[in-house]
Amino acid sequence: MRRLQGRKKKGTKRRTLVKNLDMYFSRYIRWSHADSDGNVKCITCDAVKHVKEMQCGHFMSRRYYSTRWLSNTKLSNCHPQCYGCNIGSQGRQYKHSQYIDRTYGEGTAQKIADRAELSRKYTNEELITLSNYYKKKVDELCTKHC
């Protein structure tokens, strides 16, 4: 009979780090697109709802770590979407790509798709740093909107 050995505790588990980063990043995406009342428009169907009723829609799936948290002024994989578009319609990827090309320039959606194929492994330290960065950004936005 095999003996089961307990796992050694190594600090915060990686999946917890990813989950925390996802939470702060999602809040950042939604709040950064919100108006002064906390309302935000779905980029694929134009529905307007409060940020707490919206989701962080990814053009390229979250399984691609190289674009999972990609969001800057020239290139962004993530935008606010309502539940119906993000989950019910699997992100409405074609409409999402049109929005990206209109916002960031023709061909940007293809650049994001190409970048998604690149392998990217984040260290735990990088995940913590990104999480802290987006938490700070959300706190700054919430002082203006909340």
What would you say this structure looks like, in words?
With 146 residues, this protein is mainly α. It has six helices and four strands, in the order H-E-E-E-H-E-H-H-H-H. The strands form two sheets. It has a two-stranded antiparallel ribbon with strand order 1-2. Strands 3-4 form a two-stranded antiparallel sheet. A hairpin with a 6-residue loop joins strand 1 and strand 2. The termini are far apart.
Could you give the topology of this structure?
Layout: H1 14-32, E1 39-41, E2 48-50, E3 54-58, H2 65-68, E4 78-82, H3 83-88, H4 93-104, H5 108-116, H6 124-145
Antiparallel strand pairs: 1-2, 3-4
Helix pairs in contact: 1-6
Summarize this structure briefly.
This protein is mostly helical and 146 residues long.
Give the number of DSSP strands.
4
Indicate the percent of residues in helices. Answer: 40-55%
Shape: globular
Mean pLDDT: 91
Q: Counting H and I runs of at least 4 residues, what is the number of helices?
A: 6
Order of helices and strands: HEEEHEHHHH
Q: How would a crystallographer describe the biggest sheet?
A: 2 strands, antiparallel
Distance between the termini: 58 Å
| Low-pLDDT runs | none
- The order of strands across the largest sheet is 1-2
Structural class: mainly alpha
Rg (C-alpha, Å): 17 Å
- Beta-strand percentage range: 5-15%
